[in-house]
Design brief:
The protein is mostly helical and 112 residues long. It is built from 4 helices and no strands. The longest helix is centred in the last third of the chain and has 35 residues. The radius of gyration is 24 Å and the shape is elongated.
């Protein structure tokens, strides 16, 4: 799952905090995904939502992923912007070549 990869790589849990997992059908109200855990142990997220935050912090990452992801994007804004501009430039070149090709085909068709 995509969320598991994000939570594991960013060392976070949920969107804003780990309690976000209490309102989803996956958790049955007391579980978080194992990707939230501090260690890679199967089933380590079971029952975490029923623990006090101090105890939960010993088993899982309690910080949400949104803030961490936002900081990563902001710190790499130059690369992200450059990539977007580069892709847009390639699209523009592709459109120019397509127009040139269409014009060439039209001229060839008219001469026949």
């Amino acid at each position: 799952h995509t969320w598991d990869g994000i939570q594991h790589e960013l060392n976070c849990c949920g969107t804003e905090e780990y309690q976000d997992w209490s309102n989803v059908t996956f958790s049955s109200g007391s579980d978080v995904p194992d990707s939230c855990c501090l260690s890679d142990v199967v089933g380590c997220g079971m029952g975490v939502l029923s623990l006090p935050q101090s105890e939960a912090a010993m088993k899982i990452h309690t910080e949400g992923c949104l803030d961490i992801f936002s900081v990563k994007i902001k710190s790499n804004i130059g690369a992200v912007g450059g990539l977007g501009i580069g892709i847009g430039f390639l699209q523009l070149i592709g459109m120019i070549f397509a127009l040139y090709l269409a014009n060439t085909i039209k001229k060839e068709y008219e001469t026949v």
